[in-house]
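Working notes for the structural subgroup meeting. M.R. asked for a predicted model of this chain before we commit to crystallization trials. I am recording the input and output together here so anyone reviewing the notebook later can reproduce the run.

Input as submitted:
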Amino acid sequence: MIKRTLTMAALTLACSGAMTMLPTQTAQAAEATVKCDMTFNLSGWSLIYKHAEGSGEVTCSNGQHARVKIAVVGGGLTAGRYRIDNGKGEISNVHSIDDVFGDYAQAGAEAGVVKSSQAQVLTKGTVSLALAGTGEGVNLGISAGKFTISRR
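Returned structure, recorded in token form:
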């Protein structure tokens, strides 16, 4: 039990350290009042290097919407192949849909065989992106990288 606790603490510390090395944007002074939701599909693979691509749609509470392209790149001690179908994301602290686009810092530990689910919170300056999804595949390891959302 102690060995497992120490392992989890080491993984958490490694992921936290990796997130401090990734770029962020400067904070905006005004209060953000717009909330955006994203639906997406994503598939990828990892073997030390991590790569995934996908697409989706972002809809904001102010009526703005856009089709988006998603790219995930990074590295770490990972191996596997996976697919997420009908994933959901909640994006907060934005002023308009333009704040959604860009690179989000990503770090995490993954483990799954056949059917798996995943939840993550990513940041880009003051903007937060909470992701949740289920899918299929095999993946194991810890990684850090960037999650990029761009217009399609």
